[in-house]
Every structure is written in structure tokens, then in C-alpha cells.
């Protein structure tokens, strides 16, 4: 099964499809993960509890489709990006915000892990596929 890794190690596979990345050096992945984790720590303080609780309610609503929940997550990320300093690359900030929201939701309601993880991967694949590929290919060791 898929595993949610937060230490920069790659594990499992993308259930919603491969990102299409060429085989990469594990060190490249670790560098990118460390950079994203640092940004995530900064953004973590910016996310208000009401945003997390609102998303938790959407994830808990079994009448909502995955597509509807993905739209709610995208809307929350767009709203949160307004408070991010303009010197930060917007796509990177949005990517990290999605990951931080995922962490906060799962910390609030752990039994939602699978649904939240699948939604986040789907969202990232749709919104940031090219950005992620470019980010991995741009890292020089």
C-alpha cells in the first residue's frame, strides 16, 4: 500500500498514476524534501484552525465526491496563498500548503488518512505535475 513519508524518503507508489519522472538520484529527492519541509514549517503557523476544521468537515461528509473535496482543498489553498509573502514562489508555496493542510487534517482526525492522502495526491498530480517534474530536473548536485 501507499505510505505517507515525511522524512524525504520515497516509499510506495502513486496510486493515481506515476508522475512520469525519469529515474532520479535519491539525494535530489532528499534535497527537495528538506527544502519543502523547511517552507512547510514556516507556513504551518499561518494556517488557522478554522480552515483545517472546515476541510475536516468536507472530508468527513461521505456524500461529497472526491472531485468535490479536491475542489474544497484547492479553494482553501488559494485562500491561504493570499497571506504568503510575495517573495516565495507561488507554485512551491501552494504545493507545500497542500501538504501542510494534509498533515494538519490527519493530525486532527487520523482515521481520515487514506481519504486525505488520496485527495492530496490527486490534487498535486493535477495542479503541480509539471512543476514537480521541473523542480526535480532543476536540482543540481
UniProtKB/TrEMBL annotation:
Entry keyword annotation includes Translocase: no
Subcellular location(s) of the protein: Cytoplasm; Mitochondrion outer membrane
Main location per the UniProt record: cytoplasm
Keywords: Apoptosis, Cytoplasm, Membrane, Mitochondrion, Mitochondrion outer membrane
InterPro entries: Bcl-2-like_sf, BID
CC per GO annotation: cytosol; mitochondrial outer membrane
GO biological process entries: apoptotic mitochondrial changes; positive regulation of extrinsic apoptotic signaling pathway; positive regulation of intrinsic apoptotic signaling pathway; positive regulation of release of cytochrome c from mitochondria
Protein name listed in UniProt: BH3-interacting domain death agonist
Record organism: Nesospiza acunhae
